[in-house]
């Protein structure tokens, strides 16, 4: 019985943290947010060198062959450093789609490219976790029609697209008939947008059970976003505690005031059990199939709620400075906000958790 | 990460399960009585497991996983895990740690067997969160302590044979260094007990008054002035045990059953999405605390530390349980108001009672606000409030 991280897992987190702070941390995020480039090739390259892009891809396909829990630990670090890098789509959901539904040729073509960072894959299935504006994609005679919004890792070279029947398709970013419309969101660290398919020729992933692959992708994607929020919220809490210790008012450090201390204690008390929940949900993805989907829903919904609470409270501990761009806390605040809505907001995900347990009418 | 149990532990689990099947009809509530059940559990190593044989325990090596398996299997079989109470959960570990050989031999055995019930004399009217401010006085006269003062929130004082009690014996020492830990018989002349009825209607608490209570000098645990240290070693233990997430899980299951059984305008409450959303939010939080508990168990087994994970249990657990019970009252609506011996009562009134009872636990054993101070100061290393200059 061991419920904790191995030495290798701690080393993976440390190595990733060293790299992300070495690239400039918040400053790198700021230049990315301010610049016109929608990709940060230096960050992607570094992640590829650390094996992060190929974390769950088998060694036979050029990856590292680690678990989805390891991927969640990587996502946690990316959230902690508000890193401008694709991950949940290209490093987790797309490889899962190829591994579970792709044939040998598709796997051999794409997995090594994803592992090395030579290609980035976006994932277009948000309509399955809640369609807005009537979005949705239909497959007819090998061609895709319709719209997909809020593509995960949208700045990509290829897309994995789920149609309404939960069939999966592979589409090149420059495929004829595919129109991309960039979105601006609150979160400047992870670009997203909309794909319009006007009879786009697509390559189906039909070697496995499509709907089961879609289920696995959604579960894993949700745990990655929850882990990202865990890292971001933990960093906001750490920043709030450090700020409170250094800030003097009424002749004393504001960290001595119980009003301030209790805000920090409430953040820590809500957040600390979340760490174990994310570990468990990440472990369940690979090892506890009967619990995996429900636990992914709970991790996503609960981390969204706790993340939102921490984002607001940590900002408040900083007083007026928390509201400014000077401190830059808003990058974390917005990252947590993005993670909350993508792949299903907390209310939608809780409704799904109930349905998965047979509790819905 | 490996959530499986090795063959040794799976075999142990089967053994516990087998024992419970064979002896089920000897358990309290199933035909047996509490004292003989306790004796049977000690003989088989399912109670007082790690307490040495010479003091009346079973004498096994400490094994956190085996203890956990025992707790899980008794809960699963819905059978009593043996006697509890403050004597067994708090005094016995204290005596094992710091008691004299005579004290261990005199008190541990009868306490484990349920022949000797104890109450805890800690809190006072003016020493609650600031427990070390206690003023009940003990003065040594010859070979006796003479005790005067008052205790409050003394659970089961009206049933207890003996009390373990914090008394100020060194009035000139700094406040944490002037306290001693004394043991005495509740039949000693000069003790008056007045019941305190709480908001649930029960009278488990008492006020206890001491007027010239004379206690033999040797009935002290540890040395004079060391009482604070003696008491503190086990206070931490009490905080965690007030919020067992596995009990929370069974309460959550009962809540789901309640929502399937109760109707609102002819439809099951579980079919109403507003109530269902709230249920799922609570379930998510219960899961988070269960995972946190798993982490603490694993850390204890593998000798790792997860201090913050331990510090949040009392705060989060009691708050969540209070909310869960209160939500069940909402599920029943007006029917949730029913309390006591009355028609149409659900679940013997347990939801309403536990809703109130857990407010008591939010306050007792270190209030939620004190827990937040502990988390901030010990967990997050935030500075203490500057002490006021003495007037």
Structure in words:
The complex is a heterodimer of chains A (361) and B (391). Chain A is built from eleven helices and ten strands. Chain A is of the alpha+beta class. The longest helix of chain A has 37 residues. Chain A is globular. Chain B is of the alpha+beta class and 391 residues long. Helices cover 46% and strands 14% of the residues of chain B. Chain B has twelve helices and ten strands. Chain B has a four-stranded mixed β-sheet. In chain B, helix 4 runs antiparallel to helix 5, helix 4 packs across helix 6 and helix 7 runs parallel beside helix 10. The longest helix of chain B is centred in the C-terminal third of the chain and has 29 residues. At the A-B interface, helix 7, strand 10, helix 8, helix 9 and helix 11 of A face helix 8 and helix 12 of B.
Concise overview:
The complex is a heterodimer of chains A (361) and B (391). With 361 residues, chain A is α+β, with helices and mostly antiparallel strands. Helices cover 54% and strands 13% of the residues of chain A.
Biggest sheet descriptor of chain B: 4 strands, mixed
Largest sheet of chain A, if any?
4 strands, mixed
What is the total tally of β strands of chain A? 10
**Adjacency order of strands in the biggest sheet of chain B:** 1-4-5-8
What value does the Rg of chain B take, in angstroms?
23 Å
Q: What is the share of helical residues of chain A?
A: 40-55%
Top keywords for this entry?
heterodimer; A: 361 residues; four-stranded mixed beta sheet; four-stranded antiparallel beta sheet; B: 391 residues; alpha+beta; globular
């Amino acid at each position: 019985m061991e419920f904790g991280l191995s030495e290798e897992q701690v080393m993976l987190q440390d190595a990733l943290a060293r790299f992300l702070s070495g690239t400039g941390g918040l400053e790198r995020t700021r230049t990315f947010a301010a610049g016109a480039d929608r990709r940060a090739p230096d960050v992607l390259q570094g992640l590829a060198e650390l094996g992060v892009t190929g974390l769950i891809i088998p060694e036979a396909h050029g990856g590292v062959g680690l678990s989805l829990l390891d991927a969640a630990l990587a996502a946690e670090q990316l959230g902690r450093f508000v890193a401008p890098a694709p991950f949940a789509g290209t490093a987790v959901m797309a490889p899962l789609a190829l591994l579970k539904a792709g044939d040998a040729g598709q796997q051999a073509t794409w997995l090594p490219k994803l592992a090395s960072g030579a290609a980035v894959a976006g994932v277009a299935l948000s309509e399955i976790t809640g369609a807005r504006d009537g979005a949705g994609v239909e497959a007819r005679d090998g061609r895709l029609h319709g719209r997909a919004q809020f593509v995960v890792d949208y700045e990509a070279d290829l897309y994995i697209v789920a149609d309404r029947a939960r069939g999966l398709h592979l589409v090149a970013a420059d495929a004829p008939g595919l129109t991309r419309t960039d979105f601006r969101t609150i979160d400047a660290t992870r670009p997203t947008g909309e794909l319009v398919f006007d009879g786009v020729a697509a390559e189906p992933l039909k070697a496995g059970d499509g709907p089961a692959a879609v289920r696995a992708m959604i579960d894993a994607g949700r745990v990655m976003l929850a882990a990202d929020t865990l890292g971001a919220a933990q960093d906001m809490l750490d920043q709030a505690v450090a700020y409170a210790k250094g800030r003097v008012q009424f002749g004393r450090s504001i960290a001595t005031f119980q009003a301030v201390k209790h805000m920090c204690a409430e953040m820590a008390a809500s957040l600390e059990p979340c760490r174990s929940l994310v570990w468990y949900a990440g472990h369940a993805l690979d090892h506890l199939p009967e619990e995996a989907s429900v636990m992914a829903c709970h991790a996503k919904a609960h981390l969204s709620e706790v993340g939102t609470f921490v984002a607001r409270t940590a900002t408040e501990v900083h007083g007026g400075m928390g509201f400014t761009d000077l401190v830059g806390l808003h990058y974390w605040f917005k990252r947590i906000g993005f993670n909350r809505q993508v792949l299903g907001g907390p209310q939608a995900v809780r409704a799904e958790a109930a349905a998965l347990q047979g509790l819905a009418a | 990460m490996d959530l499986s149990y090795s063959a040794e532990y799976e075999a142990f689990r089967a053994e516990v399960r087998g024992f419970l099947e064979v002896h089920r009809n000897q358990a309290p509530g199933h035909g047996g009585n509490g004292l003989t059940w306790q004796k049977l559990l000690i003989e088989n190593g399912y109670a007082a497991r790690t307490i040495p044989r010479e003091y009346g325990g079973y004498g096994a090596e400490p094994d956190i996983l085996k203890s956990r398996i025992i707790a899980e299997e008794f809960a699963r079989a819905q059978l009593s895990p043996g006697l509890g109470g403050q004597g067994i959960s708090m005094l016995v570990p204290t005596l094992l740690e710091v008691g004299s050989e005579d004290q261990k031999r005199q008190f541990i055995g009868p306490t484990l067997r349920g022949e000797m019930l104890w109450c805890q004399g800690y809190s006072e009217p003016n020493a609650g969160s600031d427990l070390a401010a206690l003023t009940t006085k003990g003065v040594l006269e010859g070979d006796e302590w003479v005790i005067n003062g008052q205790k409050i929130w003394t659970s089961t004082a009206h049933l207890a044979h003996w009390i373990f009690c914090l008394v100020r014996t060194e009035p000139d020492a700094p406040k944490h260094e002037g306290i001693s830990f004394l043991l005495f018989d509740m039949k000693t002349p000069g003790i008056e007990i007045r019941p305190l009825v709480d908001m649930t209607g029960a009278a488990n608490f008492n006020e206890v008054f001491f007027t010239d209570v004379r206690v033999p000098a040797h009935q002290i645990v540890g040395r004079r002035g060391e009482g604070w240290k003696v008491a503190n070693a086990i206070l931490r233990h009490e905080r965690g045990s007030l919020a067992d997430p596995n009990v929370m899980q069974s309460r959550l299951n009962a809540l789901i059953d309640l929502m399937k059984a109760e109707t609102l305008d002819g439809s099951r409450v579980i079919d109403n999405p507003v109530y269902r959303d709230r249920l799922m939010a609570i379930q998510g939080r219960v899961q988070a605390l269960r995972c946190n508990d798993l982490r603490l168990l694993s850390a204890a087994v593998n000798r790792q530390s997860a201090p913050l994970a331990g510090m949040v249990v009392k705060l989060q657990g009691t708050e969540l349980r209070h909310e869960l019970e209160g939500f069940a009252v909402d599920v029943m609506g007006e029917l949730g108001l029913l309390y006591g011996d009355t028609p149409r009562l659900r679940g013997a009134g347990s939801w309403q009672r536990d809703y109130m009872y857990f407010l008591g636990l939010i306050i007792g054993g270190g209030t939620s606000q004190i827990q937040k101070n502990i988390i901030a100061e010990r967990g997050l290393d935030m500075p203490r409030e500057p002490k006021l200059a003495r007037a």
